[in-house]
Amino acid sequence: MAGIRLHVIAPLVLVAAGKCARDPSVYVRKCADSVLPKLHDLRLEENTVGIEEIIGILLNDSSPCVVGAAAAAFSSVCPNNLSLVGRNYKRLREVLPDVEEWGKIVLIGILLRYVVARHGLVKESIMFSLHGTWNHRSEKDCSDTNSALDDNGNNRSL
Ligand SMILES: *[C@@H]1O[C@H](CO)[C@@H](O)[C@H](O)[C@H]1NC(C)=O
Ligand SMILES: *[C@@H]1O[C@H](CO)[C@@H](O)[C@H](O)[C@H]1NC(C)=O
């Protein structure tokens, strides 16, 4: 339904996605994950908060596969809303080992950015050089500075 690029139905799709996000079925919740970036692509300001709220719900999901997909949605829709990560940080850390491979990579990137944003880096940290690499890469790619994850473009395919 979200595939139909009609702004008129966007609010309906958003409501449906919110319902799906609370559905007992893992498969349905995962579908909500994949609908959100498409909804976000419509660039309707009034939907932004709603979309981010649903991503917050899905990041806190009990199923690792839903969390993995939510991480992908997060990095394509609102990579800078780290308060969503902070709220669910403990849960995300716990679920990380069980997320499937690709979702795991995305999620590690998100958690890393959260920790760095929150605590900064000590010069001696091994992460310091890694962080430098990220910056270097996003400059090179001339993309927006906010997300190394977006540089991959992988989330766009969802
Ligand atoms: C982050 O998302 C939440 C939705 O749960 C929203 O209330 C908040 O305004 C967002 N913050 C930013 C900085 O976009
Ligand atoms: C995450 O889910 C648990 C129940 O599974 C709930 O107790 C908790 O309040 C939720 N946290 C957030 C930030 O929504």
From TrEMBL:
Tell me the segments the record calls region Disordered. Answer: 137-158
Q: Where is the signal peptide?
A: 1-21
| Stored SUPFAM superfamilies | ARM repeat
Where does this protein come from, organism-wise?
Pyrus ussuriensis x Pyrus communis
Tell me which family the UniProt entry assigns to this protein: Belongs to the adaptor complexes large subunit family.
Q: Which residues cross the membrane?
A: none
Decide whether keyword Ion transport is in the record: no
Annotated Clathrin/coatomer adaptor adaptin-like N-terminal domain residues: 15-118
Q: Coiled-coil segments, which residues?
A: none
| Extent of Polar residues compositional bias | 144-158
**GO CC terms in record:** endomembrane system; membrane coat
Q: Which InterPro entries match?
A: AP_beta, ARM-like, ARM-type_fold, Clathrin/coatomer_adapt-like_N
Q: Where in the cell is it found?
A: Endomembrane system
Its domain of life? Eukaryota
Which keywords does UniProt give here? Membrane, Protein transport, Signal, Transport
Enumerate the Pfam families for this protein. Answer: Adaptin_N
What is the name of this protein?
AP3-complex subunit beta-A-like
Q: Any one Gene Ontology biological process term?
A: intracellular protein transport
